[in-house]
Amino acid sequence: AQKVTQAQTEISVVEKEDVTLDCVYETRDTTYYLFWYKQPPSGELVFLIRRNSFDEQNEISGRYSWNFQKSTSSFNFTITASQVVDSAVYFCALSEAEGNNRLAFGKGNQVVVIP
Amino acid sequence: DAGITQSPRYKITETGRQVTLMCHQTWSHSYMFWYRQDLGHGLRLIYYSAAADITDKGEVPDGYVVSRSKTENFPLTLESATRSQTSVYFCASSEFGQGSSYSYNSPLHFGNGTRLTVT
């Protein structure tokens, strides 16, 4: 069974600090996909990134960056120079290739950016 | 506008009543999903559908019924609502990702959610 663990439940940072969210996953499949979603206070779920198991290249998108390491089964997410608008719950999720696109979510990280 | 819409946004019902949550998408996505979100549990999959007339159970299907007679609609019915079903329900859809010689898992696109309270 697939499983995603996000250990930190709530993280508070002062604006302009960096924050890293840890995600550890478990799967028996060799082909799988990892995702991050953002849920701002308004409640909608916003897709941020997808990474497949064959692509370990790290990615940077503006102030967001992702570090995928198969050796440690981790897909960590860093927000650089955090802003108040980054305050949200962030979910890591896993989808197996033969899973009909089903996502298994971690429990989420509540990020609070203090101005 | 194209997208995925859920209705109603808020619903209060009594224990034992039947209630149906609606989900409609305009992308003609193959896959549709129902998740529930509860504090301390994150999002858990209730049911999903790979195509019209094909549905399957997720992690927490008990007490729920789904149908998918048309590609664009995926209603979720609580046959006899219980207080433990008080939650925020999210519908989602995704396309069947197909490259020239491979398939891939596409991101899910979520509706805005239905907040259901069972009294």
Keyphrases for this structure?
heterodimer; A: 115 residues; mainly beta; six-stranded mixed β-sheet; four-stranded antiparallel β-sheet; 53% strand; B: 119 residues; seven-stranded mixed β-sheet; 13 strands
Please tell me about this protein's structure:
- The complex is a heterodimer of chains A (115) and B (119).
- Chain A is built from no helices and 12 strands.
- By secondary structure, chain A is mostly beta strands.
- In chain A, the strands form 3 sheets. In chain A, strands 2, 5, 6, 10, 11 and 12 form a 6-stranded mixed sheet that branches.
- The termini of chain A are far apart.
- In chain A, strand 8 and strand 9 form a beta hairpin.
- Chain B has 119 residues and is an all-beta fold.
- Helices cover 0% and strands 54% of the residues of chain B.
- Chain B has strands at 4-7, 10-13, 19-25, 31-38, 42-51, 54-57, 64-66, 76-78, 87-94, 96-98, 103-105, 109-110, 114-118.
- In chain B, the strands form 3 sheets. In chain B, strands 2, 4, 5, 6, 9, 12 and 13 form a 7-stranded mixed sheet that branches.
- The termini of chain B are far apart.
- The interface between A and B is medium-sized, with 22 and 28 residues.
Main pleated sheet of chain A: 6 strands, mixed
H/I helix tally of chain A: 0
Extended strand count of chain A: 12
Helix content of chain A: under 10%
Major beta sheet summary of chain B: 7 strands, mixed
From the alpha-carbon coordinates, what is the Rg of chain A to the nearest angstrom? Answer: 14 Å
Compressed to H and E, one letter per element, the order of chain A equals: EEEEEEEEEEEE
State the helicity of chain B in percent bands: under 10%
End-to-end gap of chain A: 41 Å
Helical/strand content category of chain A: mainly beta
Tell me which protein chains meet in the greatest interface and how many residues each side has. A-B, 22 and 28 residues
Number of DSSP-assigned strands of chain B: 13
Which sequence of SSEs, written as H and E, runs from N to C of chain B?
Answer: EEEEEEEEEEEEE
pLDDT averaged over residues of chain A? 92
Oligomer: heterodimer
